[in-house]
Amino acid sequence: MIYMACALLFDGLVRMSEGLGFDFFLAFTLTSATEIPSMTLLVILLDRWGRRKLTVGPIAFAGTFTFIAAFMSKGLPQVILAIVARFAVNMAYGAVVQWSAELVPTGARASGSSLVHVSGYVATMLSPFIVYSERFWQPLPLLLLGAAGLLVSGFGLLLPETKGRTMPQTIYEAERLVTAHTLCGKAEDAEIDGNEDDLNNEKQKALIT
């Protein structure tokens, strides 16, 4: 869901460049120019702040600014907010790719990562319809994009931080990684339930896979 929202916001803001009441080519250039500085900042901060903060924070930030832009007048005010939102969603997009791969256990990491990317393409298919909704009500596209960003930022709080942690090798370890973290991201002491034979069997299956 988080990756889908990032893809939707990213593509939706690109398609909205023409409807911001500003020169299309200039608006597109300015929003696209945010990619290099945003990704450079992400590289610097990713191993310091962690994947969770750099996904949830920027996607909520992008959603907020996109939502506010819906109530601003067309032209420079909307373009400025769109540029800031695009900068933030670029960071969230890059961080969630790393985060999702680290949450999926080794035995399912390739197929899981593929499923994540396919879901992003599905979300991208919806963005033209969202942009087209402007014909029914002018602020509607920006409201929908902003609401999507704010909604999934709450989902991100339910997932654990993976910075500095060993990636799960089995489904059992992935489940423990998720259940051993609170809403605030603080690790709890979780008792290992289940016997060692089950755990060893899971690891053997992962190695075979």
Please give a structural write-up.
The protein has 209 residues and is an all-alpha fold. The chain has one domain: MFS general substrate transporter like domains (Growth Hormone, Chain: A), CATH 1.20.1250.20. The protein is built from nine helices and no strands. Helix 3 (35-49) packs across helix 4. The chain is elongated and about 50 Å long.
Q: Care to give the gist of this entry?
A:
With 209 residues, the chain is mostly helical. 71% of the residues lie in helices and 0% in strands.
What series of H and E elements makes up the topology?
HHHHHHHHH
Give average pLDDT, whole number: 83
- CATH homologous superfamily grouping: MFS general substrate transporter like domains
Taking all Cα atoms into account, the compactness measure Rg is: 19 Å
Tell me about the biggest sheet? none
Q: What fraction strand?
A: under 5%
Low-confidence regions:
188-197
Query: How would you sum up the global shape?
Result: elongated
CATH class: Mainly Alpha
* Helicity level: over 70%
Structural class: mainly alpha
Number of strands: 0
How far apart are the termini? Answer: 26 Å
Number of helical stretches of at least 4 residues:
9
**In CATH terms, what is the fold-level topology?**
Growth Hormone, Chain: A
Number of domains: 1
Name given to the CATH architecture: Up-down Bundle
